[in-house]
Specification:
22% strand; transport; 3 domains; alpha/beta; ATP-binding; repeat; ATP binding; Rossmann fold; disordered N terminus
């Protein structure tokens, strides 16, 4: 595959340039000895949806930061909207019509939805600005996510993770003085259920038809295959392929990301699923059917996002000795001032005690072991946890839970921002741990992950509406119970 990403048009280079909203030529970016981008050639055309995929650490986040003005390239040339030169700061990016919804959401939790909208629209000022801000974001939410139940006057801290992601996405498409020309969506559906994700993808199709470009960065390969006009694949800081979406299927994309090799999915057929022997948990959320988990089972929690699955897991975690992998790692998962190794070992610090004191050598050895097992991309486990990409932070949270001695592991939509190959590795690790006697309760918004489970309980409005046995786990059954 070529390392450059060329536009679809076959006219002269002059015509290509006239239709290119963004053009990177031999872009490189280094952080000391680490080369994050290594000669990237890439174009984003006006009015197209360009899908960008690659493993964690492939360079996608660095590329986004160049576009938004958070970073400057070390070398190479960059052209945006026909103007040569890098985007020198976020304000300049916004003046060019570049908007970004980052994987780590940036809403201020102590402000209302309307007040958060005002932050990116300084023109909303003077008398009655709050009402205008509320009207602006409510109209955007109605357009992108029809049927939403989000109030503009609600404090962001009171919203679920799904609702916060919906607000941030809708805000990116709002217009006061400068209309969006390029909207960058970094893992935009990671906390959305299938219904709201479909609404967003439909909106992407509408805005690109009107001339706005969208850079869709996601590990959900079916989304780029269905929604993107072209798909660029990154690996080790380079673009290793860029083609019309119709050229690819899921396996070919995974093969490009992994250098030509692809380990088959570990998803099991219904006949391979088994039921554990001894019951280790029985709980009934808000009435309805009870949830029963046996030793060695992987129990899925399905249904539309925001229907009580997370609250159920939190209640269980508060009442029992269990380990939990948080989906909202920024708020509920990482200790931001601690190192990577400390974030992992805190779940099992007792085993590193010697005569009542923490044995640093034991802690460091354990962290190194988990770096290898989880393939955490870090030169030093003593580095701050926030030096990792979002996906690698999530790997550290998995390592913390699995390193503990808890017999039951709770997982709250834990695969947000995790690349395809790592997902396969984690699935295999979960199965191995279950075979050794651990029990997993796994809330996920991805149907493919429910197929990894032995049984699935479907939630609606805080209640269990259906309990699906090994031979009943199908998308149709889950959706029927969800609605």
């Amino acid at each position: 595959m070529p390392s450059s990403c060329v536009p679809l048009a076959t006219e002269s280079s002059h015509a290509d340039r006239a239709h290119s909203l963004v053009r990177f030529t031999e872009i490189a970016k280094s952080f000391g000895p680490v080369r994050a981008l290594d000669g990237v050639d890439l174009t984003i055309e006006a009015g197209e949806c360009l899908g960008l995929v690659g493993h964690n650490g492939a360079g996608k986040s660095t590329l986004i930061n160049l576009l938004t003005g958070a970073l400057a390239p070390t070398s190479g040339s960059m052209e945006v909207a026909g103007a040569p030169g890098s985007v020198h700061d976020p304000r300049a990016a916004r003046a060019l019509g570049i908007r970004c919804v980052f994987q780590e959401l940036s809403l201020c939790p102590n402000l209302t939805v309307a007040e958060n909208t005002r932050l990116v629209h300084p023109g909303l000022r003077g008398w009655n600005w709050s009402r205008r801000a509320a009207s602006l974001i409510e109209a955007a939410l109605d357009t992108v996510f029809p049927g939403h139940r989000i109030r503009a006057g609600a404090t962001v801290a009171s919203l679920s993770l799904t609702e916060r992601q919906m607000v941030e996405i809708a805000r990116a498409f709002t217009t006061t003085d400068i209309a969006p020309r390029l909207v960058i969506l970094d893992e935009p559906t990671s906390s959305l259920d299938a219904s709201t994700a479909s609404q967003l993808l439909a909106h992407i199709g509408r805005v690109t038809q009107r001339g706005c470009s969208v850079l869709l960065v996601t590990h959900m390969l079916h989304e780029v295959l269905e929604s993107a006009d072209r798909i660029a694949v990154m690996s080790d800081g380079r673009v290793v392929g860029c083609d019309p979406a119709g050229v690819h299927d899921r396996d070919s994309l995974v093969a490009l990301m992994s250098g030509g090799t692809h380990r088959a999915s570990v998803a099991r057929l219904a006949a391979d699923r088994r039921t554990g022997s001894s019951q280790v948990l029985r709980a009934t959320p808000k009435g309805g059917e009870p949830l029963v988990a046996n030793q060695g089972e992987v129990i899925g929690l399905g249904g539309l996002a925001g229907h009580g699955q997370t609250e159920f897991l939190v209640d269980l975690f508060s009442a029992r000795t269990m380990a939990m992998v948080a989906g909202d790692r920024k708020r509920d998962g990482v200790f931001p001032l601690w190192s990577i190794g400390e974030n992992i070992s805190v779940g099992a610090y007792r085993k590193h005690l010697r005569h009542g004191l923490l044995n640093l050598a034991s802690e460091e050895a354990s962290a190194e072991e988990w770096r290898g097992r989880m393939k955490i991309r870090a030169p030093d486990m003593g580095n701050p946890i926030l030096s990792l990409s979002g996906g690698n932070q999530q790997k550290a949270l998995f390592a913390r839970a699995l390193d503990s001695d808890a017999g039951i592991i709770l997982m709250d939509d834990p695969m947000r921002g995790v690349d395809v190959q790592t997902k396969q590795d984690v699935y295999a690790m979960i199965r191995a741990q279950a075979a050794a006697g651990r029990t997993f309760l796994w809330y996920t918004t991805e149907m493919d992950e429910l197929y990894e489970c032995d049984r699935v309980y479907v939630f609606r409005e805080g209640r269990i509406m259906a309990a699906l046995g090994p031979d009943e786990i199908t998308e149709e059954r889950v959706l029927q119970a969800s609605f």
